[in-house]
Amino acid sequence: MTHPQAECSIHRQSLYRQVLGRDWDRLPTAIRAVHETSEGHVAFRGRATVERGQAPLARLAAFIAGFPAAGKDVPVEVHFACSSCRETWNRRFGDKVLRSSLQKVEKRKERLLAEDLGPFRILCSLAPEADRLHFKVRGWSVLGLPLPLFLAPGGRTFEEDRDGVFHFHVEVESPLTGLVVRYRGWLKPAAPIKTNMPARSDSAGALTQD
């Protein structure tokens, strides 16, 4: 059996490409540009609006996870440190830095994206649909302890190609806390990014607008 690290080194594919498999080619260009890099560092800048839940448990969860404070038109910088097995994200909202690491895992033969954020691990499936990439929570744990899925942080989370610009919409909420955080905005490359991305196949279908 091939060791996972050796397997990653052989394929040299970006993390999101590994998780999505054939569905990678269904992604629009702006989303692929953000997730194409398999080795090295890339950076993006943009603006965001951040909302925070006010319930006591929501505020506690946001503090533990390190989510940014509420604000409008907040400057955002995202730095990706990429290898073919793992990505480390440093997101800066104004003066607040939110760090997490991501890797591919398999659960019941389903390829999932695992994000480690403080003591939390969130497992998500990735589903391209028209001009969006949707994230669906499939499992979660705290300090390595699996927790019931019905209590998992959910909410509408997706990335979007809007007129050639990458947009993000992230919601974290649960039955226990209500809304924890919602942040949405856009990003553009901080410096030119060289890729060999082919154009998206016509079979993916036409883009649609909300």
- The percentage helix is 10-25%
CATH fold field value: Lipocalin
The stretches of 5 or more residues where confidence is low (pLDDT under 50) are: 193-210
Secondary-structure element string: HHHEHEEEEEEEEEE
The CATH superfamily title? Calycin beta-barrel core domain
Roughly what is the average pLDDT, rounded to an integer?
87
Number of domains: 1
Give the total of beta strands: 11
Report the structural category. mainly beta
What percentage of the residues does DSSP assign to strands (E)?
A: over 45%
The main sheet orders its strands as 1-2-3-4-5-6-7-9-10-11
Task: State the helix count.
Answer: 4
The biggest sheet amounts to: 10 strands, antiparallel, barrel
Whole-angstrom Rg? 17 Å
**Dominant shape:** globular
What is the terminal separation in angstroms?
Answer: 46 Å
CATH class: Mainly Beta
CATH architecture, by name, is Beta Barrel
Provide an overview of this structure.
With 210 residues, this protein is mainly beta. The chain has one domain: Calycin beta-barrel core domain (Lipocalin, Beta Barrel), CATH 2.40.128. It is 15% helix and 49% strand. Strands 1-2-3-4-5-6-7-9-10-11 form a ten-stranded antiparallel barrel. Strand 2 (71-82) and strand 3 (86-93) form a beta hairpin. Mean pLDDT is 87; it is low at 193-210.
Quick overview of this protein structure:
The chain has 210 residues and is mainly beta. The chain is built from 4 helices and 11 strands; from the N terminus they run αααβαββββββββββ. 15% of the residues lie in helices and 49% in strands.
